[in-house]
């Protein structure tokens, strides 16, 4: 019976929907996390009577036809790249982006990844790195025994070298923008990779043109809203239950039909 297959596609779609929602909820406290949303489309139709078909020699046309759908499919789980709320941490190496942009990061294999997670630290050689030890791009090295590490809104990194009282610029943080930032590929560790869908990155100085600016001593929270996720979860659960009910009803109809043949 067609209804069994159709309802099964609905159950599988809602199961995937719950998986996406559960990942959003799990990452509510993940720095810079961008929530995902499951998107669906209906499957192919069987046209038993095609709408617009001529029904007589006088030119009569069917005002409506008979179309039997075959269910639903998942077409994507795009990320919603809206701004998360910056929170003050008090840690001098924490940097949040306010507005558009990603921090370029050099991966161990030489590739460039991108992140909104600005929870940086200084390694044993003074280089500014991510929580995984990956270098920020372009590389910034803090001189030994220097003090007063500051980053302004335009990304200029200043320190006061040992033995002096005058701040000195030691680097410039750049950020990258994409034409289609939802087209980036997530690889975990709060990192994204460029894809043909995202387009090539446009590097620039924070605070110029359409680039966002920087906020030191702060981190960007995830853009997950608990109330919205819970309401979506309830809706997905009810949709799953209704599709399961269709499976039960179709099974009972088949049972009645097979009982008549005994």
UniProtKB/TrEMBL annotation:
Tagged with keyword Disulfide bond: no
Subunit structure: The basal body constitutes a major portion of the flagellar organelle and consists of four rings (L,P,S, and M) mounted on a central rod. The rod consists of about 26 subunits of FlgG in the distal portion, and FlgB, FlgC and FlgF are thought to build up the proximal portion of the rod with about 6 subunits each.
Keyword annotations of the record: Bacterial flagellum, Cell projection, Cilium, Flagellum
SUPFAM superfamilies: Flagellar hook protein flgE
Every Flagellar hook protein FlgE/F/G-like D1 domain range: 96-159
The organism's place on the tree of life at top rank: Bacteria
Localization of this protein: Bacterial flagellum basal body
Protein family according to the UniProt entry: Belongs to the flagella basal body rod proteins family.
Official protein name in the record: Flagellar basal-body rod protein FlgG
Any GO BP annotation: bacterial-type flagellum-dependent swarming motility
Alphabetized InterPro entries for the sequence: Flag_bb_rod_N, Flagellar_basal_body_rod_CS, Flagellar_FlgE/F/G, Flg_bb/hook_C_dom, FlgE/F/G-like, FlgG_G_neg, LlgE_F_G-like_D1
GO-annotated cellular components: bacterial-type flagellum basal body, distal rod
Domain annotation Flagellar basal-body/hook protein C-terminal: ranges: 215-259
Classification of source organism: Bacteria, Pseudomonadati, Pseudomonadota, Alphaproteobacteria, Hyphomicrobiales
The Flagellar basal body rod protein N-terminal domain, residue ranges: 4-34
